[in-house]
Amino acid sequence: MSHPALARPGALPAAISGRAGDRPLRGIVLIVAASLVFSISDATAKFVTETVPVIEVLWVRFLVFTLMALWPVLQGGGSALRTRRPGVHVLRGLSILASALLFVFGLRLLPMADAAAINFVSPLFIIVLSVPFLGERVSARRWIAVGVGLTGAVIAAQPGTAAFSAAAAFPVGSAAAWAVAIILTRRMATTESSNTIVVWTAGTGLVALSCALPFDVVVPTPREFALCLLIGLTGSAGQWLVILGYRRAPASLLAPFSYLQLIWSTALGYLIFAGKPGAATIVGAAIIAASGLYSAHRERAAR
Questions:
Q1: Residues 299/252, Cβ–Cβ less than 8 Å
Q2: For the chain, how many structural domains are there in total?
Q3: Exposed/middle/buried for 8, CB within 10 Å: 0-12, 13-18, 19+?
């Protein structure tokens, strides 16, 4: 749920390259903070969804997200609500929601380290989708990096072994949905403001979840509701930290620091759920991170 968004790895990638006024160190600090906040949100979601339905947990999160997104928009007179591309915004919002739903379902069934490691193939999916939908050229070296990264995901998922679970499909699907959202973000980057994108994303998710909520709801205890609010606050804060970070430094510089989330997720999974990552998870995560770091290096070199 470190996403989006629920934002996840590659969250506003390459929409912003090096430019005057950049503050690289500040951007790095913001992305490191976002990775920690998202891990806290993920750990809380894994804990609370043991007793509260996923739809309900995400509904509270999107409610908080929408209220936080609307506040600056309404303060500015509501002009950010207007757009010429409502269909694209709705599609992006549904993609973000799908990514969050799939990831949280994966968290319920997988150790945090496993879910986070497999989900980090999303930057590689972004590269794949950028060719047909954005017309970007991808070098042979970066295609090799994509193949290596996907190999790392396969190793982490451990198919063909007793440790393999079909639940590994959830973080993979989450990564794919997130990649679609990022491609749509890139397409809108030159015409839509960050406030417009965020408020439409939050509102779309809230409306969709509100339609599903009556079919899967329980009355939460005060403690459970407080934890749901924590998920909403940390997830929303992470979103804004990512946006602010990518406004202050090039994506190719910041992308490697998002991989710190693997460390935070592993540590929290061990401390809270006694989930010790196996050798395959560690090796797979290292391969995924290496391929992502290489892709970021190639992007930086190309620019």
A1: yes
A2: 1
A3: buried
Name the residue range of residue 168's domain: 3-302
Burial of 29 per CB tally in 10 Å (0-12, 13-18, 19+):
middle
**Interatomic CA distance for residues 150 and 140, integer angstroms:** 15
Q: What is the pLDDT of residues 80-115, one digit of tens each?
A: 788 888 899 999 999 999 999 999 999 888 888 888
Query: What is the residue type of 33?
Result: A
CA 224 to chain CA centroid, nearest Å:
23
**Alpha-carbon torsion (158, 161, 163, 167), positive or negative:** positive
- Alpha-carbon radius of gyration of the chain: 18
Which residues are within 8 A (CB) of 104 and not within 5 positions of it... i.e. 6 or more apart? Answer: 1, 45, 49, 54, 57, 58
Looking at residue 103, its amino acid is F
Nearest Cα to Cα of residue 100 among 148, 43, 61: 61
Render pLDDT for 110-121 as a digit per residue (tens, 0 to 9): 888 888 888 878
**One-letter amino acid identity for 175?**
A
Q: Tally Cβ neighbours within 10 Å of residue 61.
A: 31
